[in-house]
Design goal:
- This protein is an alpha/beta fold.
- The protein has twelve helices and nine strands.
- It has helices spanning 2-16, 21-27, 51-63, 84-92, 112-126, 147-159, 173-186, 193-218, 232-247, 255-258, 277-285, 303-308, and strands at residues 33-40, 70-73, 96-99, 132-136, 142-144, 163-164, 223-229, 251-252, 273-274.
- The radius of gyration is 20 Å and the shape is globular.
- The chain binds zinc ion.
């Protein structure tokens, strides 16, 4: 009853403000919302799209929807005169720049002090950008093998003003990208449409999985942060992906706005810590074991299907 009344009030309020139906649904938490976040900023050249060309293509796809993404940069990929200007283009277009550590190491096997220094080394490189924000995304979404390792890093982050740049929708675009590049190596003229179709289906499947799970665990819709990578696949198909979300009725939101969702203040007390934040909250709740696999996403869940499709 309470819930019905709330929805009704939001409806009235939205009508009074002259908001469209889509905005009204979004305010009520019924319309699904998603922000784009990209990791790594890997800039090797490929036959399909040079590093600069795919950087431009990804930026243009976002501009096409007036959408601001979050770019989680691993410093080692861009720390030279040739590549740093490509990051600057993101800053100039108003996208959030954030920390993905300098060396992109696996925290679970790392020495704490070295890892902490690696985060600060990356910050020293990225703080020249006006849209740099203190959000840290753990490489491989691995936030600590033990409670001690997890909590020590959480304390370090608090001390340095960092928030966790959580992902809510985890996925394996990086693996589809890897397969696509392998194909291009052997057949430069290959038809890439089947890779696009697989990619869109894969992201849609994972997005609906995490969205349904969020609604079960939290009882509401959230502002999602989708994990993608700065890669050839997105240079080719990010525009198609954004159009797909809109066609399906989802609302695209800016990444910085998404991180204002109170969801992102949560710090699940699970070990190993990490994965999608929705995955972690579901794990912590302790009653969704049947739908939680570990890791949440990986190539092993896509390989057989891609093999069967000849991709
Ligand atoms: Zn990464």
């Amino acid at each position: 009853m309470k819930r019905r009344q709330f929805t009704k009030n939001v409806g009235l309020c939205a009508a009074a403000l002259g908001m469209g139906r889509a905005s009204a649904l979004a305010s009520a938490g019924k319309q699904s919302e998603v922000a784009v976040t990209l990791d790594d900023f890997v800039l090797f050249d490929t036959p399909a799209l040079s590093a600069a060309a795919r950087n431009r293509a990804i930026l243009d796809a976002l501009d096409g929807h007036k959408l601001k993404a979050a770019m989680f940069v691993a410093g080692k990929n861009v720390d030279n005169e040739k590549n740093l200007p490509l990051v600057r283009l993101w800053d100039e277009r108003g996208h959030m720049i954030a920390n993905h550590t300098y060396s992109h190491k696996f925290y679970h096997n790392a020495d704490f002090q070295e890892y902490a220094q690696d985060i600060l080394r990356n910050e020293a490189l990225l703080k020249q950008f006006s849209h740099f924000r203190k959000f840290l995304r753990f490489p491989f979404l691995k936030e600590g093998k033990t409670a001690e390792q997890r909590d020590r890093m959480r304390a370090f982050m608090r001390e340095h003003g960092y928030r966790n740049g959580h992902v809510t929708i985890d996925a394996s675009d990086w693996y589809v990208d890897q397969r696509l590049r392998e194909r291009l190596k052997t057949s430069p003229q290959a038809d890439l449409a089947p890779y696009r179709d697989y990619y869109l289906d894969h992201i849609w499947e994972r997005a609906t999985f995490y969205d349904d799970l969020a609604r079960k665990v939290l009882g509401r819709g959230v502002k999602h942060t989708l994990l993608l990578h700065h890669n050839v696949l997105n240079g080719l198909f990010l525009g198609d992906l954004l159009r797909m979300f809109k066609r399906k009725g989802w609302k695209l939101v800016d990444a910085e706005k998404a991180y204002t969702d109170p969801l992102f203040n949560s710090a699940p007390q699970i070990v190993p810590a990490g994965e999608s934040l929705i995955w972690a909250l579901a794990k912590e709740a302790g009653k969704y074991e049947k739908v939680l696999r570990y890791p949440g996403e990986d190539s092993e869940f896509e390989k057989a299907r891609m093999d069967a499709l000849g991709l």
